[in-house]
Every structure is written in structure tokens, then in C-alpha cells.
Specification:
heterotrimer; A alpha+beta (about 250); B alpha+beta (about 200); C alpha+beta (about 180); A: about 250 residues; alpha+beta; Muramoyl-pentapeptide Carboxypeptidase, domain 2; 4-stranded antiparallel sheet; 7 helices; 5 strands; about 10% strand; C: about 180 residues; Beta-Lactamase; 2 domains; 5-stranded antiparallel sheet; two-stranded antiparallel ribbon; 4 helices; 7 strands; globular; NO_sig/Golgi_transp_ligand-bd (chain B)
Chain lengths: ~250, ~200, ~180
């Protein structure tokens, strides 16, 4: 499942993705030559993505309202083009997915350019961090660094399914998803959770790391946290098989 | 938020979380990447028909502007502007500052004070962006066109009909990013028709 | 009369209810914050909203004008600040926009109307002694801008059914007491 979807995404970015991080250049099928020799015009002051530092916006902040309006328009636009809650969630998931792929590279880039300890608990801290090989390392990457990059804090919980039938299921909990801050879902759509967008981001990160997974967002409100959301991560069979092999081989 | 008095026995970071929600900020990259995703999705949905993408972005911006104006008024507490020159300064120095943390320069006024340009030194929406190298995008796509719609929608809600479009963009290889804004008319403050 | 300090704290803060009227005079939100209030039928609330809207517009249009001392060329006018300057009359203090009815008071309660520059009206029913009504109204406007206008499922000018707005509004008003 993972492989075909990943390549589908690439063909999108190939066709028309104007928003591209430098890392995309290595993924795109017909590689673009760097600015200057490409067909693109550049301003004389050379304010291009190649001339400005990738960490320039690292600690920059913007109005939460601006994000809310953009995300709101993403939701309304998606809603106009689908019928039903499932389709809407699927569409939001698909919008988040490419973000996950891109953020993954940004995460690794930032981790290598600063301290490697932030990334994974299991890899040795002296060497630059590798992409996670084991499920738990990956999930910690999502729960911690990814969440902090996106939402400036870690997720609230990380759990493993206790049911023996579903050892491939993991849950990441966010008590107050930022994307849902201002959203009230109409009663007739009460199953809907717009954090499906974030589920898509997680799915992109998993796929990008080579962990085929399906991720969905579910409402699990409590009195204290009315918009509490559980992201259910279900890894594919191939991932679970590989996990067993790695376990036996003692790979961390 | 401060009124939600709950016993926090579980995790201590919950307290600081509640504090942080009062600060109305998010990571700038989240905004940039989300906007990029929207544009990329439109390019895909409209088969790289960039004219249509420009139109859709403007429409989305218009929807946003009609809502954003309330946030602007509620949180800035500013009153009505006396004239269009004042409006231009308000848009550039207060509006863009609040929502995009930039303050474009207001310049190139026409003599009748009905048209001006906004020159953007920085544009967070376009961080990380390079337009597709397909021989068309740099001539046809206005990547940040949503901003024109936002201005149109927001000002219409305070009884100003305007027209806004980009005339240059560093993403197209221009040396500046410039938006041209024209006042079409003040919408008369008439009473809306009564509901039946 | 020194009321503010001696007042019973509860009544000093009492906010009885809130009504929001859209640009066309339609009722889009109504909520009570105190038990024991007399309830009106939905229809009566609609009538109240529509009537107030109409009266508000009339009070605005009958704002008296004063004769102009020097009939110089009229300054470039923006809406609201001054109506078409017919003949030699103008509103006193043209820099201040013409407002409609802002307060309506009985012995037992006070109705405060806040109209936004976009034309939406917030009607707040409070105890006549309630102080800083302006602060309360501003906060309600902020909550409205956040939890109504930023909700993609809310359609402009339609009745407000936003659970997060109800929740935050209730929590904030309770937090004041």
C-alpha cells in the first residue's frame, strides 16, 4: 500500500507542486537542475530558496488565526468536492500526507545540523541520527520531534494496543489538537474529526520512513478535554514481519 | 480558559499547556506548509490551469477576508478609517502585521488617492517556494493570490469595494513583490432588505 | 451615589442573556446565563431582534444635524462618519460615526447594544448596575471572532450553532463571578 501511494504523491509534486523544499529535488523523477541553469527566472537580489537558509524560519511564529483561516478554507474546499464524512476525512488525510513526507526530511536535516539526541532515544548520540528502523523509535520521533516542530509541544500519550488480535495498532493522543481549536463540527457530522489532516501528516512520515501504515483520527472527548483526539496508527503486515526479524537480530 | 479549574494530578506539563493556549501564535512553518499544500492541491485539481488556480485562490481569500475582518476589529479595537489613505496604512501596518507578521510598504499612490501599491519585503506564504519549472507557472501563477481575495473580502465587510491584484512577484523572477489595490466605491450604508 | 464598592458582588456582575443579530436583522444567537429568567417563545425572540434592528436603524437616521457655520467644500466622506451633506447641515462632531440606539434601560435590567463595523449587533442584557459592560461585550466579540468566524462549518449570517463558542462563552462568564 505504501509504495504505490508514495509514488503517486511524487507524480503530483512532479507535475505541479510549487511548494517544494530542497529535499524534493532528490525525489522528483525528472530531476531539476539548481536555479541558474534551470528555466526559472530568479530575482537579481537572488532571494531564492537556494540562497536563503533553511533554518531561517525555524523559530519563527505566525498568527494562529492565519493558520485557522487557511485550514478552515482547506476544510470547506474539501467539503465542496466530496460527499460524506469518510470522503472528507480521506481528502484531509491526503492533504496532510505530502506534508509528512516533506517534514520528515526537515526533521532529519534539523536533527543533524543541531544535536542528534533530540531525535531518537535508541540510536547512539555520537553519530548523526539514522532513520528509525524499529516501530517504537519511529513513534517516538512522531510523538516528540514531529509534534514539537508542528505544534511546539509533544503529543500527550503514546500507547500500544493491548489486544492480542491487533498488535500492529498504536495510539498517539493529543488532548487539544491545534488544528481543531476553533472548529465545532455540526451535530449531524459528529463522527468527523478534521485532525484527519494531522493523521495524513503522520502517515506521510511513516511511509517516508518505510513503515507502511494507515493512520486515522478519532474523537475521544473527556470532560476536561472536549476535543481530545486519538490517532490510530495501524502498521501493515510487512512492517510487522520485518519488526520480528529485526527483533531477533537485535537491531534497535 | 483560566476559568477551567481542574485538578491536575496527571501531568505537570498540562499547566503550561493551558498558559500557552493564550498566546495566539503557531509555528510559522506550519502556516507556510499548509498554504503550500493548498496551492499544490489546486494545481492538481485544476490540471495546472494557473488562471483558474489564481481565481480559486482569490475566492478562498475572499471567504477568509469576510471572516478575518471580525478578528481584526475585535482584537485591534480600531475604529472606522476617515479615508482610503488611512485604510491603506491600517491594512499594511496593522492588518498584515497581525496576520502575517510583515508590514508591506504603501506607495505609488495615484493623484486621486484611490490606488496604491503594497510592496512586500518578506512574504511568509512563499517561504520554501519555487514555482514549477514548466515554462508557464512563472508567467501565469500568482502564488500568493489568496492575499488579494483576503483584502477584497475584509474591506467589503467594512463597506469598501476594492480591486486587488499582483503586478510582480519575486517567485516569478521579479525584484519585488507588489500588489496593486484600487478603491472601486464606498458601499452605501443602506439598510439591508427586511426578511420576509 | 457610591454604588460600585457597596454593591452585592453577584448582581454587580450579572449578565442575564445575550442576543446576536445579523446584518439583515435576523436573530442568529440567543442564550440565557442565569436561571429563573422569563423565557420568551422563539417567535418572540425573532420579533425582538427584528424590532430592535428596525428601531436601531431609525434612531440612527433621525440623528439630528446642526446648521453648518461655514459651508466649505465637504471633506471626502466615508460611510457612517457623515451622511450625504445635503444643504448646509451636518452632524455635530463629524469625526464620530453616527450610531443607533446604544442603551435601553428599565429599573431591573439594562440592554446594551454593540454594533460592529461590519453590521452585526450584540445585545447584552445585564443588571442595571453591572459595571464594565464594554469589557464584557468586547470579550464576547473576540470569542465570536474566534469560535464562530473561524469555524469552517459556520455559514456567514446563519444561526450560530458552535459548541466551542457556547463552551468558551459560558466558561468565561462563569469565571467572572
Amino acid at each position: 500500500m505504501a509504495a504505490p501511494r508514495h509514488s503517486a504523491m511524487l507524480s503530483i509534486s512532479n507535475a505541479s507542486t510549487p511548494q517544494s523544499t530542497s529535499s524534493d529535488k532528490t525525489q522528483v523523477q525528472q530531476p531539476q537542475s539548481p536555479a541558474g541553469t534551470s528555466g526559472l527566472r530568479v530575482p537579481s537580489n537572488r532571494k531564492t530558496i537556494y540562497d536563503r537558509h533553511l533554518n531561517r524560519s525555524r523559530n519563527a511564529e505566525l498568527s494562529r488565526a492565519s493558520f485557522a483561516y487557511l485550514f478552515g478554507e482547506m476544510v470547506s474546499y474539501a467539503q465542496r468536492r466530496v460527499t460524506g464524512i469518510q470522503d472528507l476525512e480521506k481528502r484531509l488525510n491526503e492533504q496532510g500526507y505530502p506534508l509528512g513526507l516533506r517534514l520528515l526530511d526537515l526533521l532529519f536535516y534539523r536533527a543533524t545540523s543541531t544535536s542528534s539526541s533530540a531525535l531518537s532515544s535508541s540510536s547512539t548520540s555520537s553519530s548523526p541520527p539514522n532513520r528509525p528502523l524499529r516501530i517504537l523509535t519511529l513513534l517516538h520521533l512522531i510523538h516528540g520531534p514531529l509534534w514539537r516542530l508542528l505544534f511546539q509541544r509533544s503529543a500527550d500519550a503514546l500507547e500500544h494496543s493491548v489486544s492480542p488480535d491487533t498488535p500492529n495498532e498504536y495510539m498517539i493522543t493529543d488532548n487539544e489538537p491545534l488544528v481543531n481549536t476553533y472548529i465545532s463540527v455540526p451535530r449531524e457530522m459528529s463522527m468527523l474529526n478534521c485532525a484527519a489532516f494531522v493523521a495524513g501528516i503522520i502517515e506521510g512520515v511513516c511511509d517516508g520512513c518505510g513503515f507502511e501504515a494507515k493512520v486515522s483520527a478519532h474523537n475521544q472527548p473527556t470532560e476536561m478535554w472536549p476535543s481530545r483526539t486519538v490517532f490510530l496508527v495501524r502498521f501493515g503486515d510487512s512492517v510487522m514481519e520485518r519488526e520480528k526479524v529485526l527483533e531477533r537480530a537485535g537491531v534497535k | 480558559m483560566n476559568s477551567r479549574r481542574v485538578i491536575l494530578t496527571v501531568r505537570s506539563n498540562l499547566v503550561s499547556r493551558n498558559d500557552r493556549t493564550r498566546i495566539d501564535k503557531v509555528n510559522a512553518e506550519l502556516v507556510t506548509l499548509t498554504y503550500g499544500t493548498i496551492v499544490a492541491q489546486l494545481c492538481q485539481d485544476y490540471d495546472s490551469d494557473y488562471q483558474e488556480v489564481n481565481k480559486q485562490l482569490d475566492k478562498m481569500g475572499y471567504n477568509i477576508g469576510m471572516r478575518l475582518i471580525e478578528d481584526f476589529l475585535a482584537k485591534s479595537g480600531v475604529g472606522r478609517c476617515a479615508n482610503f489613505r488611512e485604510t491603506a496604512d491600517m491594512v499594511a501596518k496593522v492588518g498584515f502585521k497581525i496576520f502575517l507578521n510583515v508590514a508591506p510598504t504603501v506607495t505609488n499612490w495615484t493623484s486621486d488617492n484611490n490606488q496604491f501599491s503594497l510592496i512586500f519585503e518578506d512574504n511568509p506564504l512563499a517561504d520554501f517556494v519555487e514555482l514549477p519549472d514548466d515554462g508557464r507557472a512563472q508567467d501565469e501563477l500568482w502564488f500568493s493570490n489568496i492575499l488579494c481575495g483576503v483584502l477584497r473580502g475584509a474591506l467589503e465587510m467594512v463597506q469598501m469595494q476594492i480591486e486587488a491584484h499582483f503586478v510582480s512577484d519575486v517567485l516569478r523572477g521579479d525584484d519585488t513583490t507588489e500588489m496593486r489595490v484600487s478603491l472601486v466605491r464606498y458601499i452605501e450604508d443602506e439598510m439591508p432588505p427586511e426578511e420576509e | 451615589m457610591c454604588v460600585s464598592t457597596k454593591l452585592h458582588p453577584r448582581s454587580a456582575l450579572a449578565v442575564f442573556s445575550l442576543i446576536i443579530i445579523n446584518k439583515a436583522g435576523g436573530l442568529i444567537y440567543q442564550r440565557e446565563f442565569q436561571a429563573g429568567l422569563r423565557k420568551l417563545s422563539t417567535n418572540d425572540y425573532l420579533v425582538l431582534a427584528g424590532t430592535f434592528h428596525g428601531v436601531h436603524a431609525i434612531t440612527r437616521s433621525i440623528t439630528p444635524k446642526l446648521p453648518l457655520q461655514n459651508t466649505a467644500s465637504p471633506v471626502a466622506s466615508s460611510p457612517g462618519t457623515s451622511a450625504p451633506t445635503t444643504s448646509g447641515f451636518s452632524y455635530p462632531n463629524p469625526g464620530v460615526p453616527v450610531s443607533g440606539l446604544e442603551y435601553l434601560e428599565t429599573d431591573k435590567f439594562r440592554l446594551t447594544c454593540f454594533q460592529t463595523l461590519t453590521g452585526t449587533k450584540f445585545l447584552l442584557f445585564t443588571d442595571p448596575m453591572t459595571g464594565s459592560v464594554e469589557t464584557i461585550v468586547n470579550k464576547i466579540y473576540e470569542l465570536y471572532a474566534d469560535y464562530v468566524m473561524k469555524n469552517p462549518f459556520y455559514q456567514l449570517e446563519m444561526p450560530v450553532r458552535c459548541e466551542a463558542f457556547d463552551r468558551h462563552l459560558g466558561a468565561w462568564l462563569r469565571g467572572r463571578t
